[in-house]
């Protein structure tokens, strides 16, 4: 079992196709919905998902589990107030981020999260296989 970003298993990811198209037309600087990078490690009894969300505050991040899918959303708004005059270059901006991951094989109620130094970490315990147990039946 591998922990993978959520995609429709019956077709290529339509979101990936749109992302590639948007990058080819607008380049990286013209993206309206920047993606964030994630690493997923198999730690034996659990998976460790690390997501880079630089510039976000903990309050900007929302984690939602529904129908076996984990969705990480982050929204950061900046004010348009300019106290130092006009910008010559402005690369830091507000934005909205969203990615979904399948939770197949994950014990959903055991997921824990922490956020420090721009990195969101989720510890996701693997669902333990339930082995059938045998028992004796008394004869009456």
Describe it for me?
- This protein is mainly β and 140 residues long.
- It has a single domain, classed as Sandwich (Immunoglobulin-like).
- The chain has one helix and seven strands.
- The strands form two sheets. It has a four-stranded antiparallel β-sheet, with no helix packed on it.
- Strand 3 (61-66) and strand 4 (69-76) form a beta hairpin.
User: Main β-sheet: number of strands, strand sense, barrel status?
Assistant: 4 strands, antiparallel
Kindly name the structural category.
mainly beta
CATH architecture: Sandwich
CATH topology: Immunoglobulin-like
What is the helical fraction, as a range of percent?
Answer: under 10%
Name the average pLDDT: 77
Biggest sheet strand order reads: 1-2-7-6
Shape field: elongated
Helices and strands, in order, run as: HEEEEEEE
Q: What's the end-to-end separation, in Å?
A: 45 Å
Computed over alpha carbons, the radius of gyration is 21 Å
Task: Provide a compact summary of the structure.
9% of the residues lie in helices and 33% in strands. By secondary structure, it is mainly beta.
Q: Which characteristics define this entry?
A:
140 residues, mainly beta, Immunoglobulin-like, 7 strands, 9% helix
Layout of helices and strands, plus pairs?
Blueprint lengths: L13 H13 L11 E5 L3 E7 L8 E6 L2 E8 L18 E8 L9 E5 L2 E7 L15
Antiparallel strand pairs: 1-2, 2-7, 3-4, 4-5, 6-7
């Amino acid at each position: 079992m591998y922990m993978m970003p959520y995609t429709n298993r019956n077709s290529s990811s339509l979101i990936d196709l749109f992302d590639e198209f948007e990058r080819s037309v607008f380049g990286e600087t013209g993206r309206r919905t920047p993606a964030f990078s994630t690493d997923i490690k198999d730690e034996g009894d659990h998976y460790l998902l690390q997501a880079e969300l630089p510039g976000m505050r903990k309050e900007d991040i929302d984690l939602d589990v529904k129908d076996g899918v984990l969705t990480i959303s982050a929204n950061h708004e900046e004010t348009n107030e300019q106290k130092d005059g006009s910008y010559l270059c402005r690369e830091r901006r507000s934005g909205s981020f969203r990615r979904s991951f399948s939770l197949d094989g994950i014990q959903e109620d055991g997921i824990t999260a922490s956020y420090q130094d721009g990195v969101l970490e989720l510890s996701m315990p693997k669902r333990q296989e339930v082995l059938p147990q045998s028992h004796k039946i008394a004869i009456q």
